[in-house]
């Protein structure tokens, strides 16, 4: 699939943000719009008690993951905290194109920059928490992480937010209703980008004899 051919690339919406920023909730707001498809990521980490395979992640062994890497099956992949691997299978691009839907990726900064490098027309959205103390409170309220894990997540958040300028849009998630409306507005406006409508525009121009 060539990034230079608009007919061969669906609209790709990337959503990133620190753990606890509320990005999964905002991704769901995008998925509430008709004509959207979630790219289900693969990961080598174990599922949490509240997770089921195939909804947000497909859980695979590290051997399976590395075999997929060797076969070139990932659009992006990265190792997080030096242990677990995450990746977005390339097949979702073909699936979105076949279904004529916009593809939604919830991925970290490493993965987002990889996708932007391969698909320059993709639209990247960064979700910021209102403050570090607020982010820590949200992480603690989930009750899923040890103290060491919380410290790692907060340090990683500090590093990730330095990259916000590399994203097309930034949403400060201090009010979920407003942030939800904003992320849906971004998705809808992105559908009107000239690059996303080139094929339709050419057909209209032909009808005018252009």
Describe the overall structure.
- By secondary structure, the chain is an alpha/beta fold.
- It has one domain (6-40, 95-207): Rossmann fold (3-Layer(aba) Sandwich), CATH 3.40.50.300.
- 41% of the residues lie in helices and 20% in strands.
- It has helices at residues 23-31, 62-70, 91-99, 109-118, 132-142, 147-160, 176-190, 198-207, and strands at residues 12-16, 36-38, 41-43, 57-59, 74-80, 84-89, 102-106, 123-128, 169-172.
- α1 packs across α7.
- The protein is globular and about 65 Å long.
- Mean pLDDT is 91; it is low at 1-6.
Map the helices and strands:
Layout lengths: L11 E5 L6 H9 L4 E3 L2 E3 L13 E3 L2 H9 L3 E7 L3 E6 L1 H9 L2 E5 L2 H10 L4 E6 L3 H11 L4 H14 L8 E4 L3 H15 L7 H10 L3
Parallel strand pairs: 1-7, 1-8, 2-7, 3-4, 8-9
Antiparallel strand pairs: 3-6, 5-6
Helix pairs in contact: 1-7
Short characterization:
This protein has 8 helices and 9 strands. It is α/β, with parallel strands linked by helices and 210 residues long. 30% of the residues are buried.
